[in-house]
Amino acid sequence: MTQSSSSPQAPHRHRGLVRLSSVGLASVLALLIGTSVLPPLVADQSDRAVVNAPVALLTAPISGDVAAIPVKPGDSVGPGALLARIANPRVDRTTAIQLDSKVTDLRERSLAAERKRLSNLAYLESLDTAIKLQSEGIAQMFRSEIEALKAKIASAQASAEEKKVLMDRQVSMVSRNVASPDMVKSTSQAYAAAQQEQKAAEARLVQKTGQLDGLLRKVYAGDDLSGLAEITQKRMAIFYDAQRLQIEETELKAALAEQQRLLARENTRIDSLSGTEIRAPGGGFVLNVGASVGRHVTAGDSLAALVDCGQSFVVAIFSYRQGQNLQVGSRVTIDGEPSGPRPGTVTEILPKTSDKADAGYAVPFPQTERRELYVLVKPDPAPSAPATEAGSAITANSCGVGRWVSVTREAGWVPSTSMLWRSAGDHAASLVTRAGTLVTAALKPLTAETAVAATEPAPDAPADIQAPQQAPAMAAPQVQATQVPATQVPAPETTASTRPALAPRADAMPLPPQRPQEFGPGPADPKRGRREQRAER
Predict the structure, then answer these.
(1) What confidence category does residue 116 fall into, taking pLDDT thresholds of 50, 70 and 90?
(2) This model's pTM is above 0.85
(3) Fewer CB within 10 Å of terminal CB in the chain, N or C?
(4) What is d(CA 53, CA 314) in angstroms, rounded to the nearest whole number?
(5) 329 Ramachandran zone, left/alpha/beta (phi>0; psi -120 to 50)
(6) What is residue 299's DSSP assignment?
(7) What pLDDT, on a 0 to 100 scale, did the predictor assign at position 273?
(8) How far is residue 371's CA from residue 48's CA, in Å, rounded to a whole number?
(9) Residue 180 buriedness (CB in 10 A; 0-12 / 13-18 / 19+)
(10) Most confident among 92-96, 431-435, 442-446 (mean pLDDT)
């Protein structure tokens, strides 16, 4: 009766277990599908974001040998820091030599023209003095002659009047037949001679007066002024020669200045070609160095690449549906930096990028999938915070280039799938670590008791057997006590190393090339490193 009554209930119990297992499996599948499909459509967060910064490529401006490179990849540099020095002693100086000879010739010719012009000016001063003295002497002589001529004219005029009176009397006497006509003839001739003498004196007076006026006006005419005219003509020739020399000197000085300018430019060019220094245009860190000391480089060869930390930004990947809630100027929060959450602003939204554009940045943009886009975020400036354990791993990268972070839209609350799994993994690792710590603490008293019991001899053992066992047991009781927990309880490091299986990090995430990480040790995932360190603590 007992077997018959219990046999009908067995199929019902199995069907209940099967139904319960099916419901549980369906619930798990629904949960997995929901967490895989819904968050990418409605999530306000993206953990596929990487810190990036533009790269300034520094090239050699001249050809030559690399004399010094005081930096190495990963060094932090400030504005104006020396990055490389190039020396080139094999510079052609033929043009500089030719220009220098031209400058010397023009300088000598200019000095000769200047000296001759100054000599002519000094000669002109002496001629002016001589002309002034001679002009004053001749003018005084003319004035004396004019006075003498005026007196002569007056005397001749008086003599002519006297002769005229005498002639008139004789004519009257001849008309009255008192005197002979021959007497009138001689008197008339004397009267005519007096008139002619007066006219000659008047003409001479006019001539001397004109010469004096011309002398005062520096117009030299006549035999008396011929010497002064020659001196004046000579002075004029020297004056014109001085003017010509001044023009020539001006032209030579202009040509000399031009040649000196060309020579200075050529010397500057030679100095720049014979040696130059390449300095950092801004602050940042050295991404790579493309040359070594002693290597010969040509103009345009790459020497180093400098990452501008002041222009760092975050490249985040969002789906098109998520991007509808973002626009230029939208506020977001950046998580995953050593200093903690940091606000930022969306500066640009790009549907895609190219390899040519990626070459200008320290880290290539992460690969996008179908119906995804790039969102560029500029972090808000913040005071520098002390380096944390996670940030100290990247010693050469002060701006965190290549670090994976997460970007959350302002007032967003729906996390992404990977963030959910990561959070679950963090909690699971924390629970495992805490359980291991509790088990270790609970087993310590039992371990100590076991070690003490192992050192005590059995009561029924012979004396000759107990004696040799007691010495080694008492010699190393502490070793046994410290070795037992290590074999029974897993260490926190072992738990942390198995944690990625609980929370996969980047199975579906394309990692960018880790170019900045070649300068210093550091995990590929900084967030994952921090979780492991927290788990170890």
Answers:
(1) very high
(2) no
(3) N
(4) 8
(5) left
(6) T
(7) 83
(8) 15
(9) exposed
(10) 92-96
Lowest mean pLDDT among 140-149, 361-370, 396-405, 511-520: 511-520
Structure tokens of 25? 């499996």
Dist. CA 425–CA 139, nearest whole Å: 126
d(CA 171, CA 141): 44
CB 289 within 8 A of CB 66: no
The residues, ordered by sequence, that sit 6+ positions from 352 with a Cβ below 8 Å of its Cβ are 368, 373, 374
Residue 134, CA distances (Å) to 28, 148, 215, 465 in order: 133, 21, 10, 155
pLDDT digits (tens, 9 = 90+) for 163-215: 888 888 888 887 887 767 777 788 888 888 888 888 888 888 888 888 888 87
For the record, the structure tokens of 416 come out as: 């992404």
Q: Are 416 and 40 in contact (CB under 8 A)?
A: yes
The one-letter code for the residue type at 220 is Y
Q: Which two tokens stand for residue 246?
A: 């001044």
Q: Tell the residue number behind the tokens 């942390």, with chain if given.
A: 496
Single-letter amino acid code for the residue at 385:
A
* Helix (H), strand (E), coil (C) string for 132-178: HHHHHHHHHHHHHHHHHHHHHHHHHHHHHHHHHHHHHHHHHHHHCCC
Dihedral angle computed from the Cα positions of residues 501, 505, 506 and 507, in that order, rounded to the nearest 10 degrees: 30
Residue 495 contacts residue 429 (beta carbons within 8 Å)? yes
| Cα gap 60→86, rounded to integer Å | 8
Token pair, residue 530, equals: 């921090």
